[in-house]
Amino acid sequence: DFLNISFESLSETFYSMRLLDIVGATVIIQSGKSTTGENKFGLNLSQLPKGIYMLELINGDEMGLKKVVIN
Question: What's the CA gap between 31 and 58, in Å, rounded?
């Protein structure tokens, strides 16, 4: 089970991504350098139990939050 993530960046900057479980504990954390334009990467979720998670992505001064459901 893989989660494909893509986001746009207006400039080359650093990003951090966290996947949080339902109680707010970080289960996956990843960071790196984004490039100008579209950025894509995948997360392997096969080791995680079924449930509801929140994906937090911070890229420079921007932040996004999305719900992720593993069935």
Answer: 9
Question: Could you tell me the pTM of the whole model?
Answer: 0.89
Q: CB–CB of 27/68 below 8 Å?
A: no
Calculate ∠ Cα 3-41-9, nearest 5°: 120
Residue carrying structure tokens 């993530």 = 5
Token output for 42: 């995948």
Per-residue pLDDT of the chain (71 residues; tens, 9 = 90+): 899 999 999 999 999 999 999 999 999 999 999 999 999 999 999 999 999 999 999 999 999 999 999 99
